[in-house]
Amino acid sequence: MSQRSSFFQDVYEVVMLIPPGRVTSYGAIGKYLGMSSSARMVGWAMNSAHTLPHVPAHRVVNRIGVLTGKFFFETPNRMQELLEAENIEVANDQIQNFTDFFWDPVKELL
DNA sequence: GATGTGACTGACC
DNA sequence: TGGTCAGCCACAT
Predict the structure, then answer these.
(1) Is residue A24 pLDDT above 70, yes or no?
(2) Which of A13, A32, A77, A78 has its Cβ near the most Cβ atoms within 10 Å?
(3) From the Cβ of A17, is strand C under 7 Å away?
(4) Which of the nucleotides lies closest to A49 (Cα–C1')?
């Protein structure tokens, strides 16, 4: 994967591989790309991902399941609505039973 | 070419 | 048990 245009592309691919009804964390993606300590970069990549059409950024949250990037969406409620549309429980901008919905690319894609 | 910033994470006090 | 500090890499100015 890596060594392409940007590792951004890899982030987009992983995010697009997230199954419906599942979510993952920035750190998990970073770890899958070999940069577990650079979770910030994953979030930064999501900033650019906002310009792309089919990148489900709403399925990417921080390690505790909080919708930290909801304000980056068209509307703050958009992220929660998209998650709820996939049967993911969201309360107070935080995913309920996060570990149950958590999808780890390192373990699932391996 | 250097500096600042950011949708995070892990460790320390 | 909970809040605070510093590290991390890539991109924009």
Answers:
(1) yes
(2) A32
(3) no
(4) B7
